[in-house]
Write a structure and sequence with these properties.
Blueprint lengths: L17 H6 L4 E5 L2 E6 L3 H10 L1 E5 L5 E5 L3 H8 L12 E3 L2 E2 L5 E3 L2 E6 L2 E5 L5 H12 L4 E3 L4 E6 L3 H9 L11 E6 L2 E6 L8 E6 L2 H14 L5 E4 L3 H6 L35 H10 L3 E8 L10 E4 L5 E11 L4 E9 L8 E6 L2 E8 L5
Parallel strand pairs: 3-15
Antiparallel strand pairs: 1-2, 3-11, 4-9, 4-10, 5-8, 6-7, 8-9, 11-14, 12-13, 13-14, 16-19, 16-21, 17-18, 18-19, 20-21
Length: about 375
């Protein structure tokens, strides 16, 4: 597959770390929330191996924040998500599917409760800020909604804990998963959460002071040599093996939470009010008619730029493949597919057309690892 360069512009925003990652050898970008998001530093497979063994620093400033503050902020945030936040605590992160009036997914952010009347929605790739503003206007909520200057860097990998302890002290290793606190770097406080878009462990630094954040970025590489620190980015292989779902790739606004395996985040029996609640009650009553599952195909490579239909032996469509990659762990192609209810059985076989050739594969459960 031929690659083409991206024409940078004000509309496709750079990040405070762009100049640094380009010197470090970034080889591909994608666009995420109208910003440049690094997609590769050379071989994705080599980066995958490095991430699983060492530590990487990621420019994920494209993971933007929607800040909702004011007297009615909690009511608005709750209206947007099907997860019950009535007992949420300051200093905690919450994975919260956002849904519309039809019960379909709009985004799946991590919500940070900064104060009783101040929240950050750390969003996936869709324009949540306009969704929030529309709801606030229609309901006449007393809130302020902005995109604050927050440029996240992530420190990911099994050696991330040792690196961050070296920089911030032992206290940072005591953070619980999805907890956050404020840590000092050369006189500047940074909000740091134990989170990140990999299953290898690590942290995300929510940088509000750009100059300090750039110094911290450089310092992590300066003191991280003993841990074999390297530049990196969300890794396609690692995230598919771990079934870390991607909005816009694995699911979108045509899918509901039950179809995507988000059952534990749907609070239908509580008294909370959220969009699409009645619709999701109907879905639960009738049962989901499709769901995300894994697939395996015994081939060595695949280039997927859109969804591909999966067929049974009678050429009936059983679902569609939405993300896929070659997995060094399984030594075959694995992927995430939306499968129709009649074909949910693990080991269900299918056919797929790739480059005018027909290949066969099997359906399996998620996650792979």
């Amino acid at each position: 597959m031929k690659n083409f360069s991206i024409a940078k512009s004000r509309r496709l925003r750079s990040t405070p770390y762009t100049a640094r990652i380009e010197k470090q050898g970034v080889t591909a970008y994608t666009i995420y929330n109208h910003m440049l998001l690094p997609a590769a530093f050379g071989s994705i497979e080599n980066s995958y191996k490095h991430l699983k063994e060492h530590v990487q620093v990621w420019d994920v400033a494209a993971e933007r924040q929607v800040e909702i503050s004011g007297k009615d902020s909690a009511e608005l945030v709750q209206l947007m998500t099907c997860r019950d936040l009535s007992k949420s605590k300051i200093g905690r992160c919450y994975y919260c599917p956002i849904i519309d009036e039809n019960g379909n997914l709009v985004n799946d952010p991590v919500v940070l409760k900064l104060d009783e009347n101040r929240w950050w929605l750390s969003i996936a790739d869709s324009d949540v800020i306009f969704f929030a503003k529309g709801l606030a206007s229609g309901h006449k909520f007393d809130v302020k909604i902005i995109e604050p200057v927050v440029d996240i860097m992530a420190i990911q990998g099994p050696k991330s804990f040792a690196l961050m302890e070296k920089v911030f002290g032992k206290k940072i290793t005591e953070l619980k998963f999805f907890g956050f606190d404020y840590f000092d770097f050369e006189g500047t406080k940074h909000l740091i959460a134990r989170s990140g878009w990999s299953k290898q462990g690590g942290y995300e630094v929510y940088v509000q002071n750009t100059e300090s954040g750039q110094k911290l970025y450089d310092y992590l590489f300066e003191v991280g040599k003993e841990f074999n620190v390297g530049p990196g980015c969300p890794n396609l292989i690692e995230r598919i093996e771990s079934a870390l779902l991607s909005y816009g790739n694995d699911f979108d606004n045509s899918d509901n939470p039950f179809e995507c395996g988000f059952d534990q985040y749907v609070s239908l029996d509580s008294d909370i009010n959220f969009l699409g609640k009645d619709k999701l009650k109907e879905v639960k009553s009738k049962g989901a008619q499709k769901k995300l599952m894994g697939i395996k195909i015994d081939i060595k490579e695949i280039s997927l730029t859109g969804s591909k239909n999966l067929y049974d032996e009678k050429n009936n469509i059983i679902g569609e493949l939405r993300s896929a990659c070659y997995s060094p762990h399984f030594q075959m192609v694995i992927g995430i597919a939306m499968i129709q209810k009649s074909y949910w059985e693990v080991s269900q076989t299918f056919k797929i057309q790739i480059n005018d050739n027909t290949f066969r594969g099997k359906v399996c459960d998620l996650p792979f690892i």
